[in-house]
Amino acid sequence: MTPPKVMNSTQQLASENEQLRQEIEALYAAAEAREQQLLAATHAMDEILLEMETQRNTLKRKNKQLLELNAYIRSINDAMNSMLVVVGVDGLVTQTNRVFTEDLGWADEELPDIHIDSLFPHSMLTNLSNTTADTQESKVVSTITQSGHLELEMPLIRCNGELTHAVYLVKGEQFYSHQGKLQGILLTATDISELRQREVALKQSEIALQKAKAEADAANQAKGDFLANMSHEIRTPLNAIIGFTKLCLHSNLSTKQRGYLNTVDVASHSLSHLINDVLDLSKIEAGKLTMENVPFNLHQVLSNVRHVMWFDVSKRGLTFDLLVDEDVNPLLKGDPLRLQQVLVNVVGNAIKFTDHGSVSVTVKNKDTDDIDKESDNPTRPQSLQFQITDTGIGMTAPQLDRLFNKYHQADPSTTRRFGGTGLGLSISEKLVNLMNGDIQIQSIYGEGTQVTFYACFESVSDSGQTDVPLPQPSDYTELPNVNELSGARVLVVDDNAINREMIKELLLSLGMWVEQASSGQQALEAIESHPYSVILMDLSMTNMDGIETTQALRKLDLGKKVPVIALSANTSENILETCLNAGMNDYLPKPIDFQRLIQVIANHMTKPETSTTNQQEIVEQVFQPEHALQRLGFNYTVYNKMLKRFIDQTDQRLQTLQEAHDSRDLAVQKHIFHELKGITATLGADKLSMLCGSLEAKCQSVSVDEETLFEVVSAYLDLTKELTEYLKTHS
Questions:
Q1: By C-alpha distance, which of 277, 330, 327, 329 is closest to 302?
Q2: What does the DSSP 8-state code read for residue 180?
Q3: At which residues is 4-aspartylphosphate found (predicted)?
Q4: CB 676 within 8 A of CB 685
């Protein structure tokens, strides 16, 4: 039996051993845990090292890409034709390109020492703003940071301190980091020397071109003036040749003499036509030929063509037919004179090259299906087809190809046989083109020719025109009735003795009394001594010309109402208006056409008797444009210009009337009413003209009172109202 002490000791020892064993197991467990931790840490370290290696490789790759990108950007910068300069906020240059190095001579290693201001000329730096207190701060950087932009033209300073010969366009902008912080400025400088030289050269070229254009315009003007002057100088003797030839042909002549004079007559008229053709061609080529746009009657134009052509048709024994389709509206708006000129040229050629047979003119609508006959529009486009057919000599295909060339005819023998210059068709083609049309010719040699041309006009449904029937050949066999001219006293005013004698002989053959004056002053002296039925006034005279003479004679008692007909070789477009404004009644161009001269004189001298009732009707009518247009030869353009000018001067004339009334000056009032009487009579305003005439006579002794002034002003305003309404439908 074990004693209790031993039992206790054994139990105690076993307990301690168990405790020790537990501690040892705990140590083994802690060591194993520490080993696991160490292994985990080692594994983590390996992963970290691997990640670091991966990042290092990525960084190497990115650095390589960055280097490649920098090299790429550098190559792009070096490929630029402009300087590129990167500047820090301190003004020091940090980066440049190839052009900077080549143009300014700086080396790459010198860049850190370059201040941007050192590249700018001193005069340019003084113009740049610098509001900072720091005098060391870059003016260039300061200017750009304040204004946000810089743009200058200037030379730059090279590395040796000298200015470049080249001029640069320098532009500057700011650039920032991705965080919005200012990093510096970016400058570009482009060599614009060649551009500026080109601009200078271009400017010099423009100046030279303008000078050349001015010289060309002056040459054209000189050419026009020369042609006009030569026309006048040629027409003056030609007028005498034609006139005296006509006189001689009316006298007793032998057969041989009459043949000679007929040749002279034909040649002189051919020369006259040549002058007209040359002037027209010159105007067309200079772009100075303007087309009228006035109402006219197509039948009247065709009547004029038959009138002009009838003698040649009769002489050749040809049949001449005018045919107009019923669908054609004869009331048109366009240029009747140019249309007539084309028809006369083409029909004249047809007659000239036709020895036997016929010549016909047919007019019809170009597109009959497109015409709206029911349209309420007072004006609508109308394209007409004019077809001139003859049974003449015809032409070959090669002759047709060069027909519209200037100065060319079918062949040289044509010119020798038939005469002419070859200008007629060339001018006709250009005139037809100006009328928005074209011209075509078909011909068979030995059988005849057909000329077709188209022209565009406005068809007028209600223009106040009266339709004119197509004329018959018998309408032109005799001169107009001139019985009333016998015994009339005529004054011929011309400084050319040949012209005076020629006109004198022509008028003496009609039984008229003719007196002559070689100057304007002689004409005024003659008018003060004798009353005349009509005065023929040359415009171009030395000392006092026809305009001045007419204005002076209108102030004389015997010269106030006498008809004055202007004679001139000047055929400019505004000559008629000039003559009418000067107080003349009509105008005739030189060389003078004998029949036309008789007609004009008869128109101004033979006036039908007017009954008291008819006179009262005229007075009651404020405005009668038909009478005025007849005196103007139905030149609507000139007439409308006169009406517009009269309306525009309303305020001025009414003020003048009021001032004349307030002044009580009889001479002033008489002059104003005399002037207004003539102007309104020219316009066809007979009512106001008669009123002014009576007041002019009244002002011999009595001043115009308030009531009379009111009557004149009212009549004036009524007239302007009528004129305004008239222009609305006739412009």
A1: 330
A2: S
A3: 538
A4: no
Instruction: Convert the pLDDT of each residue in 23-51 to its tens digit.
Output: 888 888 888 888 888 888 888 888 888 88
What is the number of helices (H) and of strands (E) in the chain?
Answer: 23, 17
Token pair of 481 as six digits: 């009735």
**Model pTM score:** 0.41
Nearest to 720 by CA among 671, 679, 668: 679
Q: Which residues, 6 or more positions from 349, have their beta carbon under 8 angstroms from its beta carbon? A: 424, 425, 451
HSE (CB half, 13 Å, CA atoms) of 327? 17
Return the H-helix or E-strand segment holding 425.
helix 424-434
Helices 686-698, 706-730: axis angle to 10 degrees equals 150
Q: What residues contact residue 293 under an 8 Å CB cut-off, 6+ apart? A: 333, 334, 335, 458, 637
Terminal Cα distance for the chain, rounded: 163
Distance of CA 362 to the CA centre of its chain: 35
**Is beta strand 439-444 parallel, antiparallel or unpaired with respect to 448-460?**
antiparallel
The answer to whether residues 482 and 598 touch, using CB atoms and an 8 Å cutoff, is: yes
What is the 8-class DSSP label of residue 162? P
63-102 burial, b if ≥16 CB within 10 A, otherwise e? eeeeeeeeeeeeeebeeeebbbbbbbeebbbebbbebbbe
Q: Report d(CA 301, CA 461) in Å as an integer.
A: 18
Give the CB-side neighbour count of residue 18, counting CA atoms within 13 A.
6
| pLDDT per position as a tens digit, 312-346 | 787 788 888 889 998 898 888 888 878 888 898 89
C-alpha 715/C-alpha 711 separation (Å) is 6
Q: Tally the C-alpha atoms within 13 A of residue 119's C-alpha that lie toward its C-beta.
A: 28
* Largest Cα–Cα separation, the chain: 208
Q: What's the one-letter identity of residue 285?
A: E
